[in-house]
Amino acid sequence: MIAKLGNPTHVYQDGQTHLLEYMRGRRAQATHMVRVAADGKVLSYEQVLTDQKFAEIKPGVSDKAAVLRMLGAPYENVYYSRVGLEAWSYPYKESGVWNSLMAVYFDHSGIVRKLENGPDPVFEPREHRRF
User: Could you count the other beta carbons within 10 Å of the beta carbon of residue 84?
Assistant: First the structure.
């Protein structure tokens, strides 16, 4: 698979399999995960920055390692000291159409506390940007 797609952006161990991450597109709006068995056989290949995948993240249950295996590395991460949460941002095409940004917030122990999505400000007209 590496010969066809090139070097992955990250590699994750998931039980007996490996996940090869390939961040693609403008602002990494697409991330593909390739699941590879111990014998090198490709088990699956999917675009993971989707509404369905985000719905698999369970606040209060999912942790950073689980989110990395589900979605791959974030495009950006920011720590909000006032509320004690770290946000991982994932630009994506919501419903395959809208330029959106999903933020996954973790507490100090690395557990997901909430998810928020909205329009990706990079794609908003300049007069509508807040910053």
Answer: 12
Neighbours of 96 (CB within 10 A): 9
The answer, yes or no, to whether residue 130 has pLDDT greater than 80, is no
Mean predicted confidence (pLDDT) in 39-52: 95
- Whether the predicted pLDDT of 25 surpasses 90: no
Q: Say which residues have a Cβ less than 8 Å from residue 125's Cβ, sequence separation at least 6.
A: none
